[in-house]
Amino acid sequence: MSDFDTLAAELVEAGRELYRRGWVPATSGNFSARLDDGTIAITASGRHKGRLTAGDILRIDAEGRSLDGRRPSAETGLHLGIYRRFPQVRAVLHPHSPAAVLASRLFKGELVLEDHELLKALDGIDTHAHRLVVPIFANDQDIPRLARKVDQWIERHRRLHAYIIAGHGFYAWGGSVAAALTAVEALEFMFDCEVRLYGVRS
Ligand SMILES: CSC[C@@H](O)[C@@H](O)C(=O)COP(=O)(O)O
Ligand SMILES: [Zn+2]
């Protein structure tokens, strides 16, 4: 199998797993992986992400141009923004998960995750004592404008592990599709804990 075929198969499988967990309902979500040559395998727009086939993954260049004429995810610009900033990132996943959406209803501007052992599931974090700031951006149908906001946040803070889009979902990534899946699972767990804690306290 070529690199592309291998990564396409991993993205298809990721979609099944995320759908099984209830995190990409009703055609929501999008996934991508970067190849060695800098091109990107990404989900086609509008597909049901729990029922993808290899034919639903297409190839784009680093500027987001489709290399086979098909239409990539409407949110391609958000994937490209992460690849541009972080050379070590090889996969970006975007679930529409309940805890991320609920967290964005309860917390404004950012969600701080600290004293969670699962922080260590994220690339580059090796202690529960890490203080992870997950920014929460307002939802926006103008993806280039939203991508600019994310980029400005990275410019200001110099690092970013994930971000939430209010009322929408979140973006997470990693050095492989497997690492990005682990990040999604860990983050959703921590978002869920914070949402429940908020409920207990109020
Ligand atoms: C079901 S609407 C969800 C979309 O608007 C979008 O947010 C999304 O995640 C999927 O868009 P897509 O173009 O299929 O990648
Ligand atoms: Zn989305």
Primary descriptors:
alpha+beta; 8 strands; 8-stranded mixed β-sheet; binds zinc ion; binds 5-S-methyl-1-O-phosphono-5-thio-D-ribulose
Please explain how this structure is put together.
The protein has helices spanning 3-20, 76-85, 98-106, 143-157, 177-201; strands spanning 30-34, 40-43, 57-60, 91-94, 110-113, 132-137, 162-165, 169-174. With 202 residues, the chain is an alpha+beta fold. The protein has a single domain (3-201), classed as L-fuculose-1-phosphate Aldolase, CATH 3.40.225.10. Strands 3-2-1-4-8-7-6-5 form an eight-stranded mixed beta sheet, sandwiched between helices. β1 (30-34) and β2 form a beta hairpin. The longest helix is centred in the last third of the chain and has 25 residues, at 177-201. Residues 28, 75, 94, 96, 168-169 line the site of zinc ion.
